[in-house]
## 1
Amino acid sequence: MNLTDEQKEQGRRNFLKALAGTPALAALGAAAAMQGPVKGGPVKAAVIGTGGMGRGLIAQCQKDLIDLVALCDINPKRRRAVTEMLIKNGRAQPKEYEDWREMLQKEDLEAVIIATPLWSHAEIAVGCLDAGKHVLCEKMIAKNEADCHRMIDAMRRNKRILEIGYQRYYNPVYQASYNNIVKQGLIGDVYFARLVWHRNANWRRKEDPPTPDFDPSKWGYPDWEHLVNWRLYKQYSEGLTAELGSHLITATNWFFEAAPVAAYATGSIARYNDGREVFDHVYATLEYPGGRAATFSSIESNAFEDHYEMFLGTKGTLILQNEVEVYLFYEGEAATTKVEVSRQADAPVADTSATRPADAQGRTVNAATTEQVDRNISYRNEIAEFCASVRTGRPVRCGPEKAMQSARAVFTANRAAEKGQRLALTEA
Amino acid sequence: MNNHTRLSNSQQIALIALRTLIGWHFLYEGYYKFALPGWSADGTRLSAWSSAGYLKAATGPLAVLFRRMPDAGWTTFLDGTVKISLALIGISLMLGLFTRLGCWGALLLLVLFYLLMIPLGGTQQPGSEGAYLVVNKTLIEAAAVAALLAFNTGAIAGLDLLFANRKERLAAKLRTDTAN
């Protein structure tokens, strides 16, 4: 074929004209695939552990986000109670399993929520991750540092999401306090935080076994008492510092943007010398970089202060009380500014019900849109964002790396209390 | 000689750019409706799309007719038709394939959408980014599609040219065969 240069040029022009819209279609199509909606309905999930925490999380699962297809618990009475709750709330009846391994084999799941005793987190989470499931695991991440690493390795190996359930990260009160008060410098430089979780009650729980012949030994508990009160025994629990303190320490790590470097601690079984192995009174001091520190106390003999995180800065003091209220005291002022939270924008913002003008960047005043924050919002947001991460790949707010930082502080504080000395946090 | 040969290059480019942009608007609207229910990139749950809400909220001269459609069980049919039509029209306009048909389809849909909710209030409505009186962006887009039809942009650029060239070659061959 002999084409003249003119014919060749004409041919090229004709070709390009014929394909005029194709490059735009390809480019915009690629953009749509990346930025457009991600197809997918509710996340198919199961819950392992239907005790108090598991039941609480299940109650906050929204059916258009998460489809609870199965429940697993070694206690059939608890499983049944949750199933009845779901049916009563108009949800589909989930399948019930005693053994989580059997559940993973038989059910087509995308994700698993783990709310079992601390000592079992690593084994179950690694099993689920290795089975290709995304995991939302209740706090604390694991019973020891080696287990934390096992969970992180499994997450990375399987390229799955592992989120640890520190609900404060999903609490509008904490988000607003961090973004609009601490980060904006309203309380100045913070060198000290006081962390308190005080109760006036026995941690011991009373519950009858599901059947008279129920045998918990095959699940690693010598008797029913050790199963129902696992929090009181060192084989299964890291005590008050883990179950209560790790929440407060995680929030402090977040607000300090750092992790502790050393811990002093002491404690005692002061009030309830009933055979338990973990302290019922714990006092710890955590050292942070930059000469900063946090003290933590958890007692079971007085509930006057309940629980709070208090950040004492050079310009003011911020108190987050019971996860739902925030108070801001300016240095040198007698008046208190109560801080409320508004959802006026994409993210929660702090809203002062003013004893002084809201004059700082990031704060807004619009009392009309202030909404009451209830503690369940944190759990609801936590599960919703976990589902969103499963569907869209968006990073979770509290992955295992962050959770491990507070866990290491807990392990170190507990060992420091046992040894009666200051211990540095070192890599295992 | 085709009409488009009287247009300057910049006029031809402007018309094809307009057609491509309108085509993308239609295609993405169709794609988006197909992709629902789903999740936004920032993790927000997005409900399934349905025309029922728009039909129920219809205003204007044909409002009574539109409002009756969901009750008459038309929703599923209309949802599917609208989604497919938007996507096909979008592809047609972007690629310049069956361009006249695509333009007529686009014009029909845009007129229907306009009639569904004619802005007669003159003030900013909830969910709207501006204030409109009689003329809104839907009507302007319809006018732009009418311009594309008038200028027969399929004869300027796009896959329709392949068919046109093939037709011309066949006609030329026929003329040659007849002459012989």
## 2
Amino acid sequence: MEQAVYDQYELVVGLEVHMQLKTASKAYASDANLFGALPNTLVSPITLGHPGTLPKVNTQSVDFAIKLALASDMKINTPVFFARKNYFYADLPKGYQITQDKTPICTGGEIVIREDDGTEKRIGITRAHLEEDAGKSMHDQDPFDTLVDLNRAGVPLIEVVSEPDMRTSREAYLYLTEVRKLVRYLDICDGNMEEGSLRCDANISVRKKGAPEFGTRCEVKNMNSIRNVQRAIEHEMTRQIDIIEAGGVINQETRSFNAADGTTSLLRSKEDAQDYRYFPEPDLPPIVITEDHIQRIHSTMPPLPKELLHKYLKEFNLSEYDANVLTSEKETALYYERIISKTTNYKAACNWLMGPVKGYLKEQALEIEQSPFTPEQLASIINLVDAGKVSSSTAAEKILPALANHSSKMAEDVAAELNLIQDADDDSIKQIAEEILAAWPDKVAAYKAGNKGMLGLFMGELMKKSGGKANPKTASGLIQQLLDQ
Amino acid sequence: MVFHSLKEVQSELSSKSITLNNVVSQYLQNIEARMNLNAFLEVWGDEALAQAELIQQKIDNGTAGKLAGMVIAIKDNICYKNHKVSASSKILEGFESLYSATVVERILAEDAIIIGRLNCDEFAMGSSNETSYYGPVKNPLNENCVPGGSSGGASAAVAADFCLAALGSDTGGSIRQPASFTGIVGMKPTYGAVSRYGLIAYASSFDQIGPMTKCVEDAEVLLQVIGGPDAYDSTTLLEKLPSAKNNSDKPKIAYLKEAVESPAVHPEIRARLNEILEKLKSEGYVVEPISFPYLDYMVPAYYVLTTAEASSNLARFDGINYGYRSKEAKGIDETYRKSRTEGFGREVKRRILLGSFVLSSGYIDAYYGTGQRVRRVLQEKTKAIFEQYAFLLSPTCTDVAFEFGAKSKDPIAMYMQDIFTVHANLTGNPAISIPCGKESTTGLPFGIQVTARHKEDNDLFVFSKALEALLS
């Protein structure tokens, strides 16, 4: 089919994001909430759903939901009611999941996504509710039986349901990236799609551009990376348009994404949808959240990426690119924040962090939170360069490495030790310059004949002879002056 | 050697006229002599004797707990670590609990001796103990009759002197009705007064564990021990029950007009109730009739809501993680279907089906929703009664114990057994059944039910002791 036909259609996407909360223990039991433990070792009688056991709400998971609500302008609904969702599966020991039905803990709110050029779009959030994860059924570990690991059973989840506000797969990508960034800033979820701590289902439909109603949607599951969410959306859009253009209708159904070939296939149709018989969880009385409690949590919130981005752009006048790079990871942003508490040269701080510091960390295979440089040290380098006492390259190549793991040493100490302070004395530089020009009469002639490239050669010689102590700007000015005489 | 109260046992132990070993041995002999009653699913005789030795030492040293001397048995839906528990169901045949119920830990901490686990209706669903997978329990007072249910093993065991007390559970009358049928005291505490942690759930918002004893005072002592907040059960009250009010004025008492007028209630029970009311009046109590025209709604609301909760609570018995798994089943769906078909009895399946239906899409509002609305109205109307009166009197049951099979073919007739008792479970109020008379022809006992305000369990005990004295 011609592209022009596809172009007549508009894509409509809403995402459901399930995130495992990084609480110390499980949602309704005291078992540790850990990834990667030996199978079935984090299983108390409560997790196993043994007869007579009862759930108990982990208030930390409620607090995490409050954090997310505060960070995305959601309304916090109190009291918090829990509900049971009934279905049978081998990895669901109680035969029901404790979740929330008609009364989610958070409603409303938005996530702002931002294109590289700075254009923003608000993606509405319908609701976010607390629930518990199921265990893991493994169908490929044993030739005859399905094996079940219940370590994951009862791990707290928050499910964030967006409005159908996304119109391109790119927007879905940006939304997911933003949500993941946010929960990492809040430190409530590690956002790892490969390990399954962040999972996403996409509700996808198409309609003719300008059509007032949404088309029938399909829900696509089993995408284990943000890239695959994008691929699934793109495939689904084409598939649905092809069906409509061939005169068919879209059936409301659940589909599964196949990462190997980028297609989706039918999991179950609407007719096969289960009746989950939701009803209020009688074992958990409603939890009241007070305004005081919300305020307490608010006071412990870290700076949010959108606030930092705004500050860097508007107050620091950093570029869109710089501001984005600095805020894309919480650890980078926090490190940057610490550095700029010691220097006001925001642009230099950004350049140092994203350039030499990141380069050094990469070379040493260190994470940013393991950086061996204190903010004071980095500020001292910036100040030294700004004062014209060392060149940036000297500072990056010689001073920075010498500062690593010597937190009490500052840039000026190292510069002095290594005799790197740029000579402010023009006379001594002039003398060196004169010596060089005298030693290379043919090159001087070449320069005078129009080969301006010779200037670089003279500069290189001068820096070598001065032991790097010459201020490059002064030096090049001097050489030029001498040559033009 | 027959004991009527813990006080009696303790005074004989402290006077050293008997030892705790004598007490336990006596009960074991009594059990042995009437095994045909089928009250116990398991007797932990050796363990009880060993405990008797340890606790005897504590008694001798003066370090024994409050319940030292109490030989107690637990209904088979209460978990006791490393002991079997089955809810009298095939689906949990051979299952051993990994942990102890909070109530078990608390009675053991006060030096009670647990002598065994007691037969009951399967998953506490029944009013005659006839739904047990392990067979019915016989009423020790007339072996052709049922002991009531679902705590039928418990009522029979206490009435037959197999133990001094028992812990039962009451979802719609399962402690009080069998107590009435066997002539003992049975008490359902305020909802939330006793932790349900370790009680195999039937209907979570109705279930309460409670004492079954030979006298009101023992019920009181037991509730003091087993009650109180529990971090493992979020539905427990946040504080201990308040002490009884120190009130010199006699409390105002209401009685259900319908209960003393309805032809559905055995005439002798009505007559006896009237007699008691007159006695109370002559003692200076204000006793007034009230009309509570909601009786017709109670049993239907009760069955809609309890079966809804039960259908979910019993989902965990699926043949996967523990309990009975059908041997022929292949694949997961067949494992569920066959294990549950073969593992559950008829009554349990009936209630799971009913409960699944009332929660199902398209019906939930008409059934479960209506049930909840009825429950709310009942709670309001009941609260209004208790704004004027401290206690509400009624018969515990409409009749005395019936013969085996008399009602088991007709579930509605069986469900109507609960007409007076479900009220307290729907509203969460504390209620007690105290033996108050015997039918003239059969000599079978019946009880009077006293219901009190929320959390006024201790006031209920004070009044019940007075009533008990008045009746004897």
